[in-house]
Amino acid sequence: MTSTTTTNKLFLASLAWTTSAFVSRGSQPASACPPTAKSMPMRLYSTYAAAGAPAVDMSKYDLLLDEAVEDWTAVASAGTAMQEAGVYLRSRSKENFVDTLKFTIRRDGGLGLLLNEIAGGREDGVGITVVQEVLEGSNAEGSGIVPGDSIVALSVSRMTERGPSSVEEDRLDVATECLGYDATIEALMSLPAVKSPDDELTLTVKRIRRQPRINVKLQYPPYSEEEDETIELFAGENLRREWNKAKRQ
């Protein structure tokens, strides 16, 4: 038996570049057009630079819903070698970072997520929509999704028999980052109908978290005749740079 995979990508909003409601970074050639719903590739990025799996429970750094609502912003960015042109979620505060997480939820009976638009009202569908509440007893309860998360992508996979000895996996990926409420609901409604109680949906969300801080004790050799000192760093910061900065203060 053979198995092949086909991927379809669906994008539901064109992204405008000139707006007073969102931040614009970088430059765009005068002859270039804003990326359209059909041309935009899926964007799944985490802005946190830490490498490897976290060694602590990162949920302790999650913001409360009201804090997350105040901190979310959308940034229109020109394309670079590292990132496609588009509109991206960012944190307003330099003391926070945006993490990217994936959760798989059963679709039968609904997801059980109450969504709220915190920025939007634009004709092109661009905005910011967050999870307002995870309903008790729903499929999403206990999944790991929390209020303040913003859904940035949806993915549905289904195995289909193409012949007596061939099975093909059909996957539909829908990008929803920086969409208003109506466009987000349209994306959810565009997914194939539920055919089995076991049908699942993978949601990729972005979540604002406080950057972990650590205290580092610096011990100098005896000949330096300097007292030991303790400096506070964000996890992952360059120790030498921050030490030099502390010495100049």
From TrEMBL:
Name of the molecule in the record: PDZ domain-containing protein
Keyword field: Signal
InterPro entries: PDZ_sf
Coiled-coil segments on the chain, per record: none
Highest taxon of the lineage: Eukaryota
Entry keyword Nucleus: no
Signal sequence annotation: 1-21
